[in-house]
Amino acid sequence: MVRPAIITTLAAAAVAAHYANGSPAGLGAYVFLGALVTVFGIYSRGMRGQNYWLSLTGLVEAWFIFDYCVYGTALSVLGRSKAPLAASLGDSYGKAYLVGAVALAAFAFGAHFAGFWPPRPRTEYTSTAPGRLVFLWFTLAGIASAIILLLDPESRRQLLYEHVGLSPREGMGRYTALLFMLPTTAAGWWFLSSKPKPRAPLITLACLSLVAAIHLGYGRRLMWAGAMLLIFHLLRVRGIFTLRARHLALALPTTALIFVGMEATKNLGWYAAAQSIEIGALADGHKLLEMVDNSVGRFDTTAALIANRETLPYYHGETFLLAPLQALPVSAGFARSRGVREELGELIYGAFGQGLVSQEASLVGELYANFSYAGVAAGFLLVGLAAAWLDARCHHSRNPLVALGYGLCLFRAVHQLATASTSWFPLTVLAFLPWLVAAGFNALRRAGATP
What we know:
This protein is mainly alpha-helical. The protein has helices at residues 2-20, 27-42, 56-78, 89-115, 129-151, 153-162, 173-193, 201-212, 214-217, 221-237, 245-265, 269-276, 279-282, 285-293, 299-308, 318-321, 340-349, 363-394, 400-418, 421-449. It is globular, with a radius of gyration of 22 Å.
C-alpha cells in the first residue's frame, strides 16, 4: 500500500497548489490528477512488476508523476513556459493535461492487461563466455576511444575549455559512439564475468558508479541516470545492493546540486567551471527549474506541440519512419527532414541546432504531433503492454543475458520517454549492439552444442 499512498499524497498536494494559486490549467489539471490517482493508485495495483519501482512500468509511472504532477504543476502555478505558445497559457496547459490523462490511462490499461499474463519461471545462472568476450572487446574499444578523444585538440578544447559537452568534428563520430557505449559495456562485462554475490559490494558499487559518471563528463545527464538504473538492476540480480526509497531520498539533494552546477556552468567547460561554481548560487530555485527545463522537463514543449497543431499540419508518422536514418553516419548523405525537434528549436530559439540547448519533445508530444489523441492512446497502450510483458518475463530472470538485456531496457527507458525518436533511436541501437552480438554468438554456440 506504500506506492498508492505516495501517489495519492503527491496528487492531493498538486491539486491544492493548483487551486490555491489559481492555476490557469483549470479543469484539465484536475482531470489528469484524478486519473493519476485512479489508474496508478487503484486500477493498476494488481499489475505485475509494480511492487518495485526499478521496473519498466515503475519508470513510466515515475515519469508521468514527475513531468505532469510535479513539473507541470510548478509551471502552471508560476505561469512560466520556456516555449512560446500558439494559444493562451490556460488553454495550452489545460489541453496538455487532458492529452496526458489519455496517455496514462492507455498505458495503465495496456499494462494491466499484460499483467495477467503468467511470468516466465526464474532461470538459473548459466555460462556466457562468448558474451564476456564481446563486451570486453567493446569496453577496450571504448577506453581507446576516450584516449583518442582526449588527445584530439578540438575534442579536448570543447570539453575542458568551451563547454560541458562533446560535439565531434567530422571523422570522430565513431569514437564518441564507442565512448557513449563504454559505461554500459563495462557494466555488462563485469556482470557477465562476475560470480553471484562477489566480495566487497561497496567497492563494486563505487567503481561501477564512477564508470557511469563518464556520461556526466560530457554533459549527458539522462544517459548517466539511465546507466545508474542499469547498474542498480545488475547489482540487485547479483544480490549486492537493492535500491530503496531511503537511498533515493539521501541521493537526490546531492544529485540535484551537481545537475544545477552543470547547468549553470555548461558554457564554461570543466576547467573554468571548477573555478566559478558558487555553492550558494546553486540553491537558487530559478536555476533548479531552469535545469529541469533543459534536461528532463517536457510538459511545456509538449503543450507547445499540441497547441501548434491548430496552425501546423500533423506529421502522420513521418518522424517515426525517418528516425532509423539517424543511425546512419552523416557522410551517408541523407537529408534530415523537419521534425518535432526542429519545430521546437525554431519556436523557442528561432533556429535549430544551436549548441547545448534543449529542443526535445516527449513521447506524448511526438505521438500527438503525428496522430492526435488516437496516436497518444494507441502508442501508450503499446508501451503499457510491452513494459508489463517485459517486467513479467525478464525482471526477475537470473539468466545473465536476459538480465542484462532487461537492464539495457531500463537504461534507455527514460530517454525514450523524454526525447524525440530521432534522438533516442540511434542511441538505443548503439546501446543494444554489443548485447545483440553477444546474444548471437551465444545462440550459435548453443546451436553447435546441440546434437
